[in-house]
Amino acid sequence: MSLGVWLVGGRGSVAVTSIVGALALRAGLAAPTGCVTELPDLSGADLPGFGDLVFGGHDPSAVPLTKKAEALADAGVVPASLVAAVHTDLTAVDADIRPLPHAATQAATAGLIVADLVEFRERHRLDRVVVINVASTEPVPDDDPAYESLARLETAMTGERQVLPPSALYAYAALRAGCPYVDFTPSTGARLPALAELAERQRLPYAGRDGKTGETLLKSVLAPMFAQRHLEVRTWSGFNLLGGGDGANLADPAANSAKSASKQRVLQETLGQQPQGTVRIEYVEDIGNFKTAWDLVTFAGFLGTRMRLEFTWHGCDSALAAPLVLDLARLTAAAHAAGRSGPLTELAFFFKDPLGDVPHGLADQWRLLTEFAATLTPRSDPEAAA
Amino acid sequence: MSLGVWLVGGRGSVAVTSIVGALALRAGLAAPTGCVTELPDLSGADLPGFGDLVFGGHDPSAVPLTKKAEALADAGVVPASLVAAVHTDLTAVDADIRPLPHAATQAATAGLIVADLVEFRERHRLDRVVVINVASTEPVPDDDPAYESLARLETAMTGERQVLPPSALYAYAALRAGCPYVDFTPSTGARLPALAELAERQRLPYAGRDGKTGETLLKSVLAPMFAQRHLEVRTWSGFNLLGGGDGANLADPAANSAKSASKQRVLQETLGQQPQGTVRIEYVEDIGNFKTAWDLVTFAGFLGTRMRLEFTWHGCDSALAAPLVLDLARLTAAAHAAGRSGPLTELAFFFKDPLGDVPHGLADQWRLLTEFAATLTPRSDPEAAA
Amino acid sequence: MSLGVWLVGGRGSVAVTSIVGALALRAGLAAPTGCVTELPDLSGADLPGFGDLVFGGHDPSAVPLTKKAEALADAGVVPASLVAAVHTDLTAVDADIRPLPHAATQAATAGLIVADLVEFRERHRLDRVVVINVASTEPVPDDDPAYESLARLETAMTGERQVLPPSALYAYAALRAGCPYVDFTPSTGARLPALAELAERQRLPYAGRDGKTGETLLKSVLAPMFAQRHLEVRTWSGFNLLGGGDGANLADPAANSAKSASKQRVLQETLGQQPQGTVRIEYVEDIGNFKTAWDLVTFAGFLGTRMRLEFTWHGCDSALAAPLVLDLARLTAAAHAAGRSGPLTELAFFFKDPLGDVPHGLADQWRLLTEFAATLTPRSDPEAAA
Amino acid sequence: MSLGVWLVGGRGSVAVTSIVGALALRAGLAAPTGCVTELPDLSGADLPGFGDLVFGGHDPSAVPLTKKAEALADAGVVPASLVAAVHTDLTAVDADIRPLPHAATQAATAGLIVADLVEFRERHRLDRVVVINVASTEPVPDDDPAYESLARLETAMTGERQVLPPSALYAYAALRAGCPYVDFTPSTGARLPALAELAERQRLPYAGRDGKTGETLLKSVLAPMFAQRHLEVRTWSGFNLLGGGDGANLADPAANSAKSASKQRVLQETLGQQPQGTVRIEYVEDIGNFKTAWDLVTFAGFLGTRMRLEFTWHGCDSALAAPLVLDLARLTAAAHAAGRSGPLTELAFFFKDPLGDVPHGLADQWRLLTEFAATLTPRSDPEAAA
């Protein structure tokens, strides 16, 4: 089962770490640490192998992947020796990371994206291509009546107005090209009624959104712990310092507020109430790719006694995200092969802001995931994309 | 269903916090924060109410409960206003906290303990009495052939030798008196083959051991999180500073090593390997009842990238333990009423070092607990203890 | 040397903690912990005793001091037993905390304030009165030509416009009444050319501003440490969570930005450069009077090696501020008695944003303070205020 | 002024980082970050330049310096690019790092060490050689009457008994060879009456001991801060996790207790009392060269209010130590050139356990250091060593 992985933002830190890692895994140079799909509890799923993955993507930057990979090695995100070892393979991928297409209308731009995807799939003779958005976070768009139905959307797209934010335009084009779509960012992506309609019509699955790599991951185990012990969380305040790729962008108040809201949602959902406190994201350029998140939780116990938990998470976002990108590519492809369409709510485990009415505690999400994986057994007649 | 709760160490911090809390709950003066049995997910169980609980116990100290409760209020463990409000009720309990019985042989001492338990049960016309050990932690005893069978044990107990450590002597007497036994400490308790034999013969349930109130509770959710994300925990080091009740005792190297080992066991069980690092317990008298635990976890992610998690837990052990003591009394009583005997492995949720071959991750323990609670429905003919 | 201490914001947390503490010290019920003036290194100064202090003030609130003190006891800021012990004395002070005077023009309002101060001084037969601003933080006012000279200011004050922010109006009135003035907040206070002119004319000293009680105190020793070790501080980010008195006010972006700037100034001054990063202040009501500040410092060492320091400060701002208020009252009074006028730059030790061209490292400020204290010996003919 | 720097433990992490750094500084490839002697406040001192330093040493290991340097680069202690750039120079130093001499008596071994030092000085035509101990920490030796006078010591050294611990044997030989001696470790070094006598007779200066690189450095600014604010430190507990070079050795209880005591001394000296709590050092191999130290300080403020400070220091000991080693070599050489002999108490700034009756607060030590540096002006007739 050969699988194309098309990365929107294909020259960014997450994308390049994913590509370097997949090449290293294929070459047997690294262990699949961080890859959830390689755990015994998911071994029943019939997934494409690391060796079956072929990478492509879109990116406005023209910096060669090898150069970007070397910068990531200097920053401590990936080992320099691995980058050197996969240099040739990386150069080969370079040609498949294309510049952003642009035309006079969004309908026409979507057509160019579809053409790139189809050409990629055909040239590499791929069984399917999964499109994954790992580009910078966008501001939340205003509501628009064109979002409500596919017909209205497609009409609007023929005009001069940029009706869709980029993440949603890519989702539209992916679905049009017969490709499942995954949103790893907090951007809009496929989360519009018009696009849900398109996915259903195309019988394609989609997943998202906002990869859960650090502070929210911790919340998704700590908040249930407080709830199950009947301890009353009074305040939960978080402070994130980051300097890497998406940091400057997230410091923009518009993007920041979307992200912060998504980061607190797990509390409401697992505690049954929203404690006081917010999440702050600060861009401090010199901090680099290793994010530091500090959280203070205050809670009341028996007879009202006040207690506190503080944690500091010092993690490398790109290194945490990259194996999940590979997991999502493999799982979404297998779901497609198994005939699944619509939102893949069983993948909530991977996301801060998961699709559907799903549990937000990690343990329940884990159970959903492992049960889902067990259903991903081979079909006799896998349905090719449109 | 009137329930006697007999506390070994009945004038200690945990016991007095439990008693004050139960009296306050009965009087409607406090919410059941921290009481797991009051959560909706356990509401199906047929448990004795807070108003059905009657407290008694053994303790070498003669300090009145009201005095001890006022000291706990000064230390910030319980509100002074609550202590004042339950003053009369507390005084009434005082008479049921008896001095430690002592006779020439352990057999004779056990007889005195049994007599105290029976007298307590009959005088208060209780349906049953659950004995809970909340006394100071003991050193681990050496292996002894007398532990291997009830017959050998009872023979040895007729001699002058103190064959059983106190916690096990209480477990023996409790079972002899027809009382279920719970060990909330890391001491030996009922965990000897001879006592398992006695519990089986008496058709009595028992539970333990070592109440999971802080650092280990966190480990039981964080370690599964790392495992489910396929992140490789390399080191896990913990440092506990505490000044309250049991602190000086735990600083004793013998008790300390038992406790520390029990605190790291969850890592081996949930991670499938034992990371480097140990748990240190330090007694710093001035720290008082609010323990501070600091943990550093270092782990490797994708392509070997090193990352870190640090947390500081600032908790009041007595306040965390007390509602669990009430939970265990209620659940163990209900299990007895429902005809259960032997180790209550489904109560692993409450313990650092649970009985039986059970999961150590909190989420799995929670599932066991809620499923267990659902079975605790009333029996038509509840079997009284021997 | 009887000394009136007139507190602007006399029913606030800092004021009431100061008053309760002074009364307790006078009664011999507490040790002078936190009072810098009681250290051996300052013992040469001829200062008024705690028993010589008489409190008065202005406050818009009418809540009795005893009620406020009990609330502070409930919040853990002062011991309930002390509040009970000084109850009568506290009630006696109550009458001297007056409502805010208000008239049609600021000139007239100033006249009312002066009258209150003079009446207080005369009724209690005080040698002098020091006015200390412990009211809520104000936004920074825009520049105004009226601030440039006393003549222009006094002309403007006769109009309807509120030309001065409240803190500066109090400073004006204090100086007019012959009282030294101390600003313990980041507000404007005496820091206007027109008021400096008035102080000089009245031969009165003044001090400020913004009491250094926590995070900035730490910066004032840690930043010099990095500088003296030639370590290159790259980023310094701070996050303050507070729920008490002034918290909601500081969360206001205008006040917040003034405060945050003042909190980073010590870095520029002691490091010789401004590292990346900012200070955030968040109001989380439930956090209460115990502020938690978390700081992350990243720095480069030999050959560029990156290292980190994190700290968490969990302090009670009112308890930290109150003894410094007493210190400042005593030192400013003694300076006045010794004939000093103009800005008391030697008191930089107490302030985040000290007056004058002074060192910002705590060690240098300490040296200035102790040398200053040594000059505060009795004068034969202490000059009474105008 | 050409200066030999003879490193006892010349192939260890601290030594190799020092050598690589000095070579890089000489070549203009790095800035002198971390070098205190390069600060403007010390610019008056007449010190040898980095280009004047010539390295030699003793070490039991035979691992080439280049190999060790590459291992340090892999561990993130020094940049790989710098190691590559100084490869040739490093190889040249290799020949001057000699194996440990050993003879039948300590007198004879000392003779071999002296011979190595003299040969090194003459071959490189050095003005002087400073011997610096950066070898592993030794256990504290028992008292010995031979330590009391030079005569008794030298008699004892002719016997078969190993009367001196290695650090003291090196100090003896250094002084015999006319070389000033610096102890950067907590070992005995020159701190014996017999060796003080020898230093005096040889008119040689010596300095020590135990380089202050992390946790104690912080204590030396934080403890004075608490003292100057009259805050009462109640407990100070520290926990050090380290995996690098000296870690396994320090985990040895004997060495550990010496180190821990030295680390708490600053508290007694600056606070005037010893708070409760201890310092623990744990060896966790996987932690590597970046040590993590966590400290909890609890303190009482005004009216007894309890507050807390926690910090985590994540530092690279070798990178923190190396520039100080270069500083000490330069300063000790200049002191010798200026005719100083005996203990250099003015260098307390650099040490955890400084020589003489000196202040332990960093600010006072800094003042001593800068005043000392100002005296290190050239002499017309620099006295050569014996």
Proportion of strand residues of chain A = 15-25%
What order do the SSEs of chain A take from the amino end to the carboxyl end, as H and E? EHEHHHEHEHHEHEHEHHEEEHEH
Oligomer: homotetramer
* Helical content band of chain A: 40-55%
Largest sheet of chain A: 7 strands, parallel
| CATH T-level fold name of the largest domain in chain A | Rossmann fold
CATH superfamily of the largest domain in chain A: NAD(P)-binding Rossmann-like Domain
Which pair of protein chains has the largest interface, and what are the residue counts? A-B, 57 and 56 residues
Query: Any idea what the CATH architecture of the largest domain in chain A is?
Result: 3-Layer(aba) Sandwich
Task: Give the number of domains of chain A.
Answer: 2
Assign an overall shape of chain A. globular
Q: Going across the major beta sheet of chain A, what is the strand order?
A: 3-2-1-4-5-6-11
- What would you report as the Rg of chain A, rounded to the nearest angstrom? 21 Å
Number of strands of chain A: 11
SS field, number of helical segments of chain A? 13
Family (chains A, B, C, D): Belongs to the myo-inositol 1-phosphate synthase family.
Protein name (chains A, B, C, D): Inositol-3-phosphate synthase
Pfam family, one (chains A, B, C, D): NAD_binding_5
Domain Myo-inositol-1-phosphate synthase GAPDH-like (chains A, B, C, D): 214-318
